[in-house]
Design brief:
The protein is an alpha/beta fold. The chain has helices at about 15-25, 45-50, 65, 115-120, 130-145, 150-160, 165-185, 215-225, 320-335, 375-385, 390-405, and strands spanning about 5-10, 30-35, 40, 60, 75, 80-85, 90, 95-100, 100-105, 110, 125, 160-165, 200, 230, 235-240, 245, 250-255, 255-260, 265, 285, 295-300, 305, 350-355, 360-365, 370. It has two domains: about 5-110 and about 265-340, FAD/NAD(P)-binding domain; about 110-260, FAD/NAD(P)-binding domain (3-Layer(bba) Sandwich), CATH 3.50.50.
């Protein structure tokens, strides 16, 4: 007779895999990991794939290979469609699963704030597919620009508007600027300096990298400006149509490229009580990550907001360390009797952001001290390499970054698109 409890984890990101690592040696559980993709990937380096500085396999790894030696864990490739809490069952795109404990680690998706034009026409930055799509667009439009006679039309193809001046927006604008300086002028002799469009970084707040220290913000603003990035703060993207980005200050930017890194929202699923969702559609949980209104469903990471934590009255930041630490805490608790459970307490390990080669910022926990320049850049490199899922990924990242550092060049500028196949196989 099997007395094990079945834990179903939906989402194989930072939180989902960390929870498995905490529970996989326990004989008390059978674990099923559910994910829409058959691979784990490292979101902080998505932008490097989109700009051709890294290949997708350098920041991703198949779940089944990760889980190969974990005897009590199974993987299910599928998309969650509905939850039936009264039956302890979830409905997937390709079947159903019963659970004793359900853990939602579903992350977030892009928030377009209800603007259908932006949703349809802009380029998002949330998945490997988004990154590859953006890479294809960038380099296809570069090739097209070499064939055009009109400088104005070339500029439309080569002007980039990046909405959102958080870490993703800053890192992407910095890498695009370095591409213009070190790569495009060498590889595209058909384009003159006058043909290259501008890079705009737009944000509705009054600073870049809003959560970081004032010193980090000032350094980042200065270095991006030196890289010829035009920064427009206290400004929102209002619309995008007819190859024009419309801004809240009344100005317009003629471009084909709006890259959307301006907002995120948690995913919602049929079957949950509406009142269990809080700001940003995140699941409201107690300090043990139990979703309000349920006694067997938990939420971790970006999709969760803990209520009742005096140290974070507005919720914890939606960053990897929160997800990892929440998963560690829940994993430890599930191995104990309920009476011994400990509430979640977040340990801030500081913040990092990269701007470009030899340029990065670092803030210690609670902004106790600040670092920028080469040493901050080196720490950023080290931290991100160590955060990759396995040794092969770490080695590949070292190789890619070393090559770029020495040669100021990258090797993954291929335009690779899936071949269109007929709907019916030929007879």
């Amino acid at each position: 007779m099997n007395n094990k409890s079945t834990i179903v984890i939906v989402g194989g990101g930072f939180a989902g895999l960390e929870l498995i690592n905490k529970l996989d040696k326990s004989n008390a559980f059978d674990i099923v990991l559910v994910d829409t993709n058959n691979y784990n990937f490292f979101p902080p380096l998505i932008y490097q794939v989109s700009a051709g500085f890294m290949e997708p396999s350098a920041i991703s790894y198949p779940f089944r290979k990760i889980l190969r030696k974990k005897k009590n864990v199974r993987f299910w490739l599928g998309t969650l469609e509905k939850v039936l809490p009264s039956e302890q069952k979830i409905i997937l795109s390709n079947g159903t699963l019963n659970y004793d404990i359900l853990v939602m680690a579903t992350g977030v998706e892009t928030n377009y704030f209800g603007n259908k034009n932006i949703e349809t026409l802009s380029l998002p930055m949330k998945s490997i597919s988004d990154a590859l799509s953006l890479r294809n667009v960038i380099f296809t439009r570069l090739e097209r620009a070499t064939r055009l006679k009109s400088t104005a039309e070339r500029k439309k193809l080569l002007t980039y508007v990046i909405a959102g001046a958080g870490p993703t927006g800053v890192e992407l604008s910095g890498i695009f600027a370095e591409m213009q300086l070190h790569i495009i002028r060498k590889d595209y002799p058909e384009l003159s300096p006058e043909d290259l469009g501008e890079i705009y970084l737009i944000d509705g707040q009054d600073t870049v990298l809003a959560p970081m220290s004032k010193k980090s913000q000032e350094y980042t603003y200065k270095k991006l400006t030196e890289l010829n990035v035009t920064i427009k703060l206290n400004t929102l993207v209002k619309d995008f149509k007819d190859e024009i980005v419309y801004l809240s200050d009344g100005s317009e930017i003629h471009t084909k490229n709006l890259i959307w890194a301006a907002g995120i929202t948690a995913r919602t699923f049929e079957g949950f009580k509406p009142e269990c969702h809080g700001p940003g559609k995140r699941f409201k949980t107690d300090v043990y990550n139990l979703i309000e209104g349920y006694d067997d469903i938990y939420a971790l990471g970006d999709c969760a907001i803990i209520t009742g934590d005096e140290n974070a009255p507005k919720g914890h930041p939606q960053v990897a360390q929160v997800a990892i630490q929440q998963a560690q805490n829940l994993g430890k608790n599930l191995l104990l009797e309920k009476e011994a459970w400990k509430p979640f307490q977040y340990t801030d390990k500081g913040s990092l952001a990269i701007i470009g080669r030899n340029k990065a910022v670092l803030d210690a926990p609670n902004h106790k001290f600040h670092m920028n320049g080469f040493f901050a850049w080196f720490i950023w490199i080290f931290v991100h390499i160590m955060s990759l899922v396995n040794f092969r990924n770490k080695l590949r990242a070292v190789y890619d970054w070393t090559g770029y550092y020495i040669h100021k060049d990258q090797s993954f500028r291929m335009i690779i698109k899936p071949r269109e196949r007929p709907q019916q196989p030929p007879k």
